[in-house]
Amino acid sequence: MDEILQKRVLMIPAPFEGHLPSMMNLASFLSSKGFAITIVRTQYNFYDISADFPGINFFTIDDGLTESDMSSLGLLDFILELNSLCEPLLKEFLTHKDDVDFIIHDEFVYFPRQVAQDLNLPKMVFSASSAATSISRCMLMENQDKWLLHGEEARSKLEELVPKFHPFRYKDLPVTAYGSMERLMLLYRNVSKRDTSSGIIHNSSNCLENLFTSAAEDTWGVPVYLVGPLHMTDSATTCPSLFEEERNCNNLNCLRWLDKQGKNSVIYISMGSLAMTQKEEFVEMAMGLVQSNQPFLWVIRPGSITGQNSLDSLPEQFSQTVTHGDKAFVVSWAPQKEVLRHRAVGGFWNHCGWNSCLESISSGVPMICRPYSGDQRVNTRLMTHVWQTAFEVEGELDRKIVETSVRKLMVGDESKKMRKRATELKKLVEDSVSIGGSSYGALMSLVDSIMSS
Ligand code: UDP
């Protein structure tokens, strides 16, 4: 611990796999700087992680929501409901607690905003996404009519660049696979309302997003701190998965399997914690991977294939490859950061979730992007067009497209060029989190700002 500063910070993460770990890394950093941290968690998606974070206090509010509420409401309405239920519960908690100096909340759990205002507490918003994503939500709100067009007119408009937001095209803006445009706009309006916050913290780095940092500050009129990738900071701690089957699965075997593979030879395939795949597409993926003749490590989450509960009905050739060969390994959850850092992993097929993008960048691994929903389109454009360490596979998949794409990523001239750029980008983010780097500086400015609030 550097020095005892003793400002008391209440931090409220969103209860999702792609959000909790990055906020916990920020909490660990602030704790290492002497702040007294209390994490307020929801009962929904709860797993006790306190043993992994000694020195940090935890409190749970009983929102009463369950997995079946999530299934029946859908993700968008679920988040809206979670926020309305939690606001009075947080107010009640804080009314009896007079030892909070500052609040940091995830942008998707915006319920502390009104409570903090009522209690006159300063606060900041934490975004587990990029600054470009935050701006893109505002751009989508301004341009939603483009998605209400149909046919050829819509298609040509969606290919156009969004004015004052280059290099993004309308089709790169973050529409959702989880609900209606109307509900999405309602959620984005809530998420993007930041006028009473004294700053916005992004798990991103200026070396990745220098094109958008000042635009973000202009949009919200408050300082924007790009402090990431937070999993690379010295104080970062691995946060256990929120899913029981993923905590219990014997996924370390896949690291031993990787040990036996050649350098940069394996393609790792994972679609994050929420994305779903249609059964037809899944079968084409499976056969394309086999045909590519490239070793692969594939995360197939239970329940992630629409209309299929087990892998029993997969083509025989695929099952044979997985069960009897040493060319393939399938797991239900992988220790992704370790996998990407492994010398055998030379490519990553992914849905372009922001954490996965940061983890691939910090490991210097080029990617195939197959965005599914929301900010994954924005991230895809960043990866493919701005940083050029990836390419996108769009449209309907068949096994031939999969086979050719895998080979393009893993072998040949284009692969070498992408790998070289990925290695250069890795060095840039490593420098940004080191002493003297931009993310390190942003973390220090954040500490000063909380101290002087
Ligand atoms: N993840 C993992 N093992 C897996 C699949 C995913 O550890 O088998 C982690 C991954 O490292 C990342 C997070 O789950 O930190 C997924 O977050 P991301 O933003 O990439 O996607 P989301 O799940 O939010 O769509």
TrEMBL record:
Asked whether the UniProt record includes Transferase among its keywords, one would answer: yes
UniProt KW keywords:
Glycosyltransferase, Transferase
What InterPro entries has UniProt attached to this entry?
UDP_glucos_trans (IPR002213)
Q: Which Pfam families match?
A: UDPGT (PF00201)
Which GO terms label this protein's molecular function in UniProt? quercetin 3-O-glucosyltransferase activity; quercetin 7-O-glucosyltransferase activity
Q: Which family does it belong to?
A: Belongs to the UDP-glycosyltransferase family.
Q: What is this protein called?
A: UDP-glycosyltransferase 76D1
State the organism named in the record.
Answer: Raphanus sativus (Radish)
Q: What is the lineage of its organism?
A: Eukaryota, Viridiplantae, Streptophyta, Embryophyta, Tracheophyta
